[in-house]
Amino acid sequence: MTQLEAANRGRISEQMEAAAQADGVSVELIREGLADGAIVLPANRHHAALRPLAIGAGLRIKVNANIGSSAEDAEEEHALRRLRAALEAGADAVMDLSTAGDLDLVRRAVVRESAAPVGTVPIYQAAVEAVQRAGRVAAMTEDEILGVVEKHARDGVDFITVHCGVTRETAKLATEGGRLTGVVSRGGAFTICWMKENGRENPLYARFDDLLDICREHDVTLSLGDGLRPGCLADGSDRAQIAETGVLGELVLRARKAGVQAMVEGPGHLPLDQVAANVVLQKRLCHGAPFYVLGPLVTDVAPGYDHITAAIGGAVAGMAGADFLCYVTPSEHLGLPTQEEVREGVIAARIAAHAADVVRLGARARRWDDEMAAARGALDWEKQFALALDPEHARERYQPGGGEGMAACSMCGPYCVYRVLGTRPGEER
User: Fold this and answer.
1) How many CB atoms lie within 10 A of CB 115?
2) Judgement on whether residues 187 and 232 belong to the same structural domain of the protein
3) Distance between CA atoms of 68 and 17, rounded to whole angstroms?
4) What is the pLDDT of residues 193-242, one digit of tens each?
5) Residue 19 domain-assigned?
């Protein structure tokens, strides 16, 4: 029985209990959200080290970090270092997007070492193996694509991105619709390449029932990927993006009927004034399924700072109802991130998530900020460090000032407002 099937039958699983405890909510909220499809709980039966985590309505916004190997950095240990950096920085989930080296070895190591839910994009491995065997992406067969999905499921992967909404019809809108950046999703590009050369429909759409059978057997959550997401502001909210979202909404219902959990992925680049509207539209078209967004990045002109442009968009998206933020690192559009850039990307996404949580969860999330405010007013630096989202970084940046015996920092020194007024918040005046 999958988590969704258990929830629909009114049963509480150990994973639901653990997820409820992690979020500080009732287990019934988790069960009802799962039954309604507004919450997902990625928990593959084979992921032994998993610390269950729920994503969706009424819960803290979660943050994902993409890791893995590439042609320039294919060693297993390098991928594991990025995994550790992401988890140490507070990532709630990770995705192994490896495209080089021993893909099976890297994935199994990541699943083994990660207590956080692990996601993958199986078509990456199918494409890599087709190139190795025949020299071209389109050489992968339908059975090989589904075979890789099953392999990932058996290895304990908790959620998989599958670009099922990239159909022959929706792909035309992206490739022939005058986009500035065309198709920027690697999985979307692989799928379109396959359809063009083979003259057939996307296997992950045409054989969606076979995909559901695999996911149900291992309780793998579907992350219905946005293979036609906009890659620049000019392409945001275009016909291709919206048409794909409509297809994904239909597939959400089919997945739920089969007892398979599903969330939906959202756009990567959007003007700021389109972010909230996109979230509302997605929730409408996709029947309230949890929304997983990459950023969105709200400007195209800040390479090297795209963790900031993504955090701006992520905060707005989260406030509007997005449930899962995929981090973006400073090296997005420039290269493979270093361990430090992985850390910076996670921290930026966590800031965005918490800023949105303050709005959507109210006092439950704001309690943290209020405790920090009280510690700041009391000039209690140790408590401020302990409460900081990144305690180590806060401690490193602290500069005492004001002279011997003063508790102020070097910003105001002897002119600290609490010293000038002779009181601190909470004290009588």
Assistant:
1) 13
2) yes
3) 31
4) 999 999 999 999 999 999 999 999 999 999 999 999 999 999 999 999 99
5) no
